[in-house]
Design goal:
The structure is a homodimer. By secondary structure, chain A is of the alpha+beta class. Chain A is 31% helix and 35% strand. Chain A has helices at 19-32, 69-76, 79-88, and strands spanning 5-13, 38-46, 60-66, 92-102. A four-stranded antiparallel sheet of chain A has the order 2-3-1-4. In chain A, α1 packs antiparallel against α3. Chain A is globular, with a radius of gyration of 14 Å. The termini of chain A are close together. At the A-B interface, β1, β2, β3, α2 and β4 of A face β1, β2, β3, α2 and β4 of B.
């Protein structure tokens, strides 16, 4: 994978281990993934792997691939994104984002 | 993206901001990406985005996509992986790994 902008987001739930909340947030992420500039996406949860270096406290992960920084920037103000924040930010207590471009 | 195992690794350098070290580690990651079970990979660095929720202290990121947990497990003991650790672990001070499977 080259010439891409990776936006990888990890969500911690306000109600930890609340599966219903997690599933609702996952539904929201599915709708969020309809933003036109998103080339590929993945809605995930921690795998069963467990070593010291592995962060597995998050409830959901969302991987979104954009063509470039401009597309990701436009996504930030996309109505679908703003609606997602409005409707679903209630669920999370913490978010960590990793934005990566080609080395 | 479905039915995949995402292995996303973030590296902090021992010699912070040492571009030569970063480039050597990136060369190592390119060799590491030759492991046969890796379906897609991306060697990255932090984008220019900068908000409170964005973690941008790492020097390099490595995204690796496997078909399933078994392939990722076998990668852990793959000779190419073991050689990478032997040759390149000198460079990093911290590693954070996110292993994610389909929600």
């Amino acid at each position: 994978m080259k010439n891409i902008f990776i936006h990888h987001v990890f969500f911690w739930l306000k109600n930890i281990d609340n599966i219903a909340d997690r599933d609702l947030l996952a539904e929201g992420l599915l709708k969020l993934s309809e933003v036109k500039t998103i080339q590929r996406f993945h809605i995930g949860k921690p795998a069963d792997t467990n070593r010291d270096v592995i962060e597995r406290g998050y409830a959901l992960s969302w991987f979104a691939e954009f063509k470039n920084a401009e597309d990701q920037a436009s996504y930030q103000t996309d109505p679908i994104h703003l609606k997602f924040i409005e409707d679903y930010s209630y669920f999370w207590s913490k978010v960590i984002v990793y934005d990566s471009v080609d080395k």
